[in-house]
Amino acid sequence: MRDDQLNDSQSDRLELVRAAVNASPFYQHLGMRVESCGDGRSLFVMEARETATNIFGSLHGGSLASLIDSACGLALASRLEPAETAVTVDLNIKYLRPAFPGRLSATGQVIYRGKVVGVEEAEIHQENGELLAKGTAVHVISRRTS
Fold first, then answer.
1. Domains (ranges, CATH) in the chain?
2. Mean pLDDT for each consecutive 10-residue tract of the chain (146 residues)?
3. How far is the CA of 137 from the CAs of 9, 75, 112, 123, 145, in angstroms?
4. pTM, full prediction
């Protein structure tokens, strides 16, 4: 296969992944969607609603954790072979300031991609650019059996 065919094939696969993520009821529930992914990077946007707030009126940490986990996982997915899959085995988040309903963005990037382990990092920013949280994820990579 030529390099341009390989790049087209990977681009097609990433578009399918992006469409599947954006169609997922879980992501729709949280107001999350993929803006871009490829070359070990991802960009998610979350239209955070009042329904994701805690008793203090700020966004529940679990919704931010989902955003970081997703940004990390999709960044890694852009580096997986078609027969590979990955699952999160560790997620670490530093919440830097409260987040409130509105548009959030999360950027993820792969910092290590081995044969069986991937390590990624992500940041979440409020619409005004304020850094809200940073996190890292570790994924175990395996081959699909079917």
1. 3-143 (3.10.129.10)
2. 49 79 88 93 94 93 96 95 94 97 97 98 96 98 86
3. 27, 11, 11, 12, 24
4. 0.88
